[in-house]
Amino acid sequence: MKKYTNTGSKDTRSGFGDGLTELGKTNPNVVALCADLTGSLKMNAFKDNHPERFFQIGIAEANMIGIAAGMTIGGKIPFTGTFANFSTGRVYDQIRQSVAYSDKNVKICASHAGITLGEDGATHQILEDIGLMKMLPGMTVINTCDYNQTKAATLAIADFHGPVYLRFGRPKVANFTPADQKFEIGKAVQLTEGTDVTIVATGHLVWEALQAAETLEAAGISAEVINIHTIKPLDEEAILASVAKTGCVVTAEEHNFLGGLGESVARTLALHRPTPQEFVATQDTFGESGTPAQLMEKYGLNAASIVKAVNKVITRK
Amino acid sequence: MSDNKSLENLVTQVRRDILRMVHKVNSGHPGGSLGCAEFLVTLYNDIMKLNDGFAMDGKEEDVFFLSNGHISPVIYSVLARRGYFPVDELNTFRLLDSRLQGHPTTHEGLPGIRIASGSLGQGMSVAIGTALTKKLNGDNHLVYSLHGDGELQEGQIWEAAMYAAGNNVDNYIATVDYNKKQIDGATDDVLPLGSLSAKFEAFGWEVLEIEDGNNIQAIKDGMAAAKAKTGNGKPVVVLLHTEMGNGVDFMMNTHAWHGKAPNDEQLESALAQNPETLGDY
Q1: Measured between alpha carbons, how far is A312 from B198 in angstroms, rounded to an integer?
Q2: Which partner from A31, A63, A310, B92 sits 20 to 30 angstroms from A105, CA to CA?
């Protein structure tokens, strides 16, 4: 089984910030908007390099989304930055009407997604955002797994016309995908080849899935790990091809099992190839305060939980 | 520049369009549409600098956003009569497969519409965004928006108002259809707006009022004054005192026609008060 090495832990939000910095140099139409979280979103370099293209909106997320929609008229490519909670639930109707329904080329970039925001607790964590965003017609939904992939995705969405939700996080996590990767929106990345089970993971759970695959290998179970960075549109072909081989699947995400990647995969399988599936996700609950590692453990979002789910799903084949 | 007589003729025809559109489908919002007919006719045919044809990007021309999207009949009529799309298409208002949705949208590709509106309170933010892009592009044209007065109860309006003043968005003129009525009744009874002029002034805006917002000359004069205030570091708002249902006697002085269509008899009476000027669609 192919092994992956952590080349040095980094936060995915820094991948966004560094990607944005690069876009500032290469794409004069890119503008950045932030709702009083410039440092948290790692947007400082863009702000310093291009003050005329950086817009501090203040703590007014609804206005930020509307301004971003308006800025597309005349050819700008707005990247909005705030926490995932304030990027989605707080401004759902603004995104729905002014961005998605109006087909505006806005990139909604959301940090501190999921439970790994940590100590701030459930008011700031969001485990429903993938569901909210994927429900919107025309919205592309991306959840990247590490620093390199987040940077690559940030660059890629600038060249894609249409509304995008880009989800990433706060904590430093393993950086293991290639620095020079080409990010293809809607294209799954197969990380390991396996024959016994398919593990479809997104975001921070991708590294956990790789750890789980190593544990499983030691136990004689061959796991095929697929990194789904784009939840919508979903690479159904890649998933179906894998389960045709393995006959069962575990989905893993830092999100509620309602509305997330798991449900999208389940729909695909129900339509084309009914297959036993287990869901590693939060169980319709809010989060709470704690360190990211503690929370991932308590809410069952780590490699151990994936191993457990694999052992279960294999018996259901 | 257009003379007042030809603008008045156009207003009369727009009123007929509005009434016939909502009557045909027995739905839509005639009251606010009629109240803004003089303003939008004058805006599109005298005040704004517009290019021929329609480009979504609106570069090197003035751009208008309708934030209170429910008065779609009037904007559809004004856009069609200005040549953005065939006047006959007004026949499809609110019908299945139409580009003329109940509330305006870009989704069906209707020329003249740049943003969906209907869910209230969003248009000022959008207008500010386009005004900022015009500045970045070195485009000296203006951005306009229209809001219902009841719409100002939405909090996003005041986020936007604070931003525009704090960031010197001075290439933007917001206008308010100040008819003091909303669906449930008088704004004073539903949720009092207080002094709109004092509120906008406190937020740092230039505030102008057009006391007779249904008078073409008053609209011309007021908007010329508003234009003269642009470019001086402050956003500009015009409070347009209008009469809901203007031009149809039984639709005036009441909020009853906010979202109600006339029946056959009422249509006949309303049209008789507004004889055909430019030809019905």
Answers
A1: 66
A2: B92
Window 21-50 of A: residues touching B by CB (8 A cutoff) are 31
Q: Give me the interface pTM, i.e. the ipTM.
A: 0.97
pLDDT of B151 over the 70 cut: yes
Any idea which residue has 């995705």 for tokens?
Answer: A153
Q: Please tell me if residue A62 touches chain B, with a CB cutoff of 8 Å.
A: yes
Mean pLDDT of B47-61: 98
Q: Decide: A188 and A226 in contact? Cβ < 8 Å.
A: yes
The whole-chain average pLDDT of chain A stands at 98
pLDDT tens digits along B85-98:
999 999 999 999 99
Domains of chain A and any CATH numbers: 10-173 (3.40.50.970), 189-311 (3.40.50.920)
Give the separation between CA A240 and CA A272, rounded to whole angstroms: 8
pLDDT by residue (tens digit) across A67-118? Answer: 999 999 999 999 999 999 999 999 999 999 999 999 999 999 999 999 999 9
Residue A198 has pLDDT above 80, yes or no: yes
CB contact under 8 A, A73 and B129: yes
Q: Which residues of B194-218 are buried (b: 16+ CB within 10 A; e: fewer)?
A: eebeebbeebebbbbebeebbbbeb
Residue B70 lies in a domain: yes
Chain-chain contact of B122 with A103 (C-beta, under 8 angstroms): no
pLDDT score of A310:
98
Mean pLDDT of B215-221: 98
The residue in chain B having the minimum alpha-carbon distance to the alpha carbon of residue A94 is: B122
Q: For residue B277, is it within any domain?
A: no
Average pLDDT of span B106-132: 97
Q: Residues B264-281: what's their mean pLDDT? A: 97
Is B278 inside a domain boundary? no
Q: A61 catalytic, yes or no?
A: yes
Taking alpha carbons only, the member of B152, B181, B67 closest to residue B113 is B67
Q: Can you say whether the dihedral through the CA atoms of A229, A235, A238, A240 is positive or negative?
A: positive
Integer Cα distance of B117 and B103 in angstroms: 6
B68: domain CATH number? 3.40.50.970
In a domain, B281, yes or no: no
A26 Cβ contact list (under 8 Å, min separation 6):
none
State how many domains chain B has. 1
Does position B1 have pLDDT exceeding 70, yes or no? no
| B118 neighbors B103 (Cβ within 8 angstroms) | yes
Q: Extract the tokens encoding A260.
A: 């997330």
Average pLDDT of the segment spanning B88-110: 97
